């Protein structure tokens, strides 16, 4: 699964989904010159897709869409640790190794329990981060690096990546917008982030995310205690479980400590 061999139902060497037509994610096509807006959610990608995205200034374009925040999974091939940064070399078998930079505050003045521990080499991780370019080479600045303990997550990530690619490159036809599909029909350009939508959340999770998004103006984010004050009718465990879910899914990230969170939608 994690190799460079193209086959039925696999990835081609450009990181696109192999198909008879040969249309990979790395060959963006726009419909009628239509300008598409940058998605606000996190986009599941392969490393090859990230590296092959067209770079225009501070914008990265793939399939006519601007990539901003992405999530990738892969095997840690190298780790370099410094007081303020951890650098990873990540490989998912679809292309060259990509550099992932995670900025941390691991100074000696920071208590040991609050320091960010680096991931080990030869372990699988999921990365959430922003696309960047340095000296003509694209990389990812991570705001979250999580270990993968269930190998099914590798398969799930590939399926999410394929799903997003197909939604993006195969617009909804007029026939699909009629009949029993009508209520769910959405133009492809609006489903780029379909793998991570608010519709998949519970009511409590949606309420917690709405409150966290509402605190975007505060660099420190909002504390869990503050969230609980605004949702007094809900059990504390339900709120904390929702925060853990949202963090694990990459919708939010911790800021000054493990009690304060901001939305990843915030620029």
Automatic annotation (TrEMBL):
Coiled coil: none
One GO CC term, this protein: chromosome, telomeric region
Location of the Replication protein A C-terminal domain: 169-259
Primary location class: nucleus
Signal sequence extent: none
GO biological process, one term: DNA replication
Region (Disordered): 1-39, 174-195
Comp. bias (Polar residues): 174-189
InterPro entries: NA-bd_OB-fold, RFA2-like, Rfa2/RPA32, RPA_C, WH-like_DNA-bd_sf, WH_DNA-bd_sf
GO terms assigned for molecular function: single-stranded DNA binding
Keyword Cell inner membrane set for record: no
Location of this chain's protein in the cell: Nucleus
Keywords: DNA replication, DNA-binding, Nucleus
Compositionally biased spans, kind Low complexity: 14-32
Pfam families: RPA_C (PF08784)
Membership in a protein family: Belongs to the replication factor A protein 2 family.
PANTHER family in alphabetical order: REPLICATION PROTEIN A-RELATED (PTHR13989), REPLICATION PROTEIN A2 (PTHR13989:SF16)
Name of this chain's protein: Replication protein A C-terminal domain-containing protein
């Amino acid at each position: 699964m994690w190799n460079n061999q193209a086959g039925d139902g696999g990835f081609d060497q450009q990181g696109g989904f192999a198909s008879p037509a040969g249309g990979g994610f790395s060959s963006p096509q726009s419909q009628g010159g239509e300008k598409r807006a940058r998605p606000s959610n996190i986009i599941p990608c392969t490393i090859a897709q990230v590296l092959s995205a067209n770079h225009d200034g501070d914008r990265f374009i793939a399939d006519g869409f601007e990539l901003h925040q992405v999530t990738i999974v892969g095997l840690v091939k190298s780790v370099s640790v410094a007081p303020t940064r951890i650098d990873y070399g990540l490989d998912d078998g679809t292309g060259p190794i990509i550099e992932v930079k995670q900025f941390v505050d691991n100074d000696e003045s920071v208590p040991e329990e609050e320091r960010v521990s680096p991931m080990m080499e030869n372990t699988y991780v999921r990365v959430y981060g922003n696309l960047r370019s340095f000296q003509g080479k694209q990389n990812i600045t991570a705001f979250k690096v999580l270990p993968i303990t269930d190998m099914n997550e590798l398969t799930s990530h590939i399926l999410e990546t394929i799903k997003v690619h197909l939604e993006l490159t195969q617009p909804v036809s007029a026939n699909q917008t009629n009949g029993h599909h009508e209520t769910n029909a959405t133009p492809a350009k609006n489903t780029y982030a379909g793998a991570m939508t608010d519709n998949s959340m519970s009511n409590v999770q949606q309420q917690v995310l709405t409150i966290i998004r509402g605190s975007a103006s505060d660099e420190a984010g909002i504390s869990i205690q503050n969230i609980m004050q605004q949702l007094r009718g809900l059990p504390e465990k339900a709120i904390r479980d929702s925060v853990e879910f949202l963090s694990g899914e990459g919708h939010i990230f911790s800021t000054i400590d493990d009690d304060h969170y901001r939305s990843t939608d915030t620029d």
